[in-house]
């Protein structure tokens, strides 16, 4: 499954980049996130409760950041396990482009799922993934905008 989109955030690029590396901001923006622990500048651990169609599962997983191109671009990859519901792994490339007082955030993500989740059908999975991504980026843009205003 592949996802990509672009969102304009009303904040300068350095503030957007800093927010993408702030576990507290990420925790409040990730749908269903119960816990987000930063082990290092490049390693995070998350616990997320998700409902996909009839399947509800608590996923535990690890995320690794590659900040080689920072602050213009970075990559992340991760994998999670939801017990009987299944497992997921994926990666995303994110680019940040300054546009006056705003920042254009673009992402391209790929994900693979297995277990019960994979049996739900690709349309439901793709639709749910798009909704979750849209919800995250709307919450993220709002959070960054509030921090700029404060």
Q: What structural class do the secondary elements suggest? A: alpha+beta
Per the principal axes of the C-alpha atoms, what is the gross shape?
globular
Number of strands: 7
Multimeric organization: single chain
CATH architect. name:
2-Layer Sandwich
Residues in helices, as a percent range: 25-40%
Low-confidence sequence ranges? none
Termini separation: 38 Å
- The name CATH uses for the topology is Alpha-D-Glucose-1,6-Bisphosphate, Chain A, domain 4
Q: What is the CATH C-level name? A: Alpha Beta
Biggest sheet, spatial arrangement of strands:
1-7-6-5-4-3-2
How would you briefly describe this protein structure?
29% of the residues lie in helices and 47% in strands. It has 150 residues and is α+β, with helices and mostly antiparallel strands.
How would you sum up this structure, described in words?
The chain is α+β, with helices and mostly antiparallel strands and 150 residues long. The chain has one domain (2-149): 2-Layer Sandwich (Alpha-D-Glucose-1,6-Bisphosphate, Chain A, domain 4). It has helices spanning 13-20, 23-29, 122-149; strands at residues 2-9, 33-38, 43-52, 55-66, 73-81, 87-99, 102-114. A seven-stranded antiparallel beta sheet has the order 1-7-6-5-4-3-2, with helices on one face. Helix 2 (23-29) packs across helix 3. The longest helix is centred in the last third of the chain and has 28 residues, at 122-149.
């Amino acid at each position: 499954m592949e996802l990509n989109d672009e969102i304009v955030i009303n904040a300068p690029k350095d503030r957007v980049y800093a927010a993408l590396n702030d576990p507290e901001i990420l925790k409040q923006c990730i749908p269903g996130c119960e816990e987000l622990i930063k082990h290092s500048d490049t390693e995070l651990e998350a616990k997320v409760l998700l409902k996909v169609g009839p399947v509800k599962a608590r996923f535990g997983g690890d995320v690794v950041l590659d900040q080689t191109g920072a602050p213009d671009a970075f990559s992340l990859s991760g994998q999670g396990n939801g017990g009987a519901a299944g497992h997921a792994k994926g990666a995303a490339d994110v680019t940040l482009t300054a546009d006056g007082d705003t920042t254009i955030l673009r992402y391209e993500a790929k994900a693979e799922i297995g277990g019960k989740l994979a049996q739900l059908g690709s349309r439901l999975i793709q639709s749910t993934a798009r909704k979750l991504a849209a919800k995250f980026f709307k919450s993220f843009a709002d959070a960054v905008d509030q921090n700029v205003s404060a």
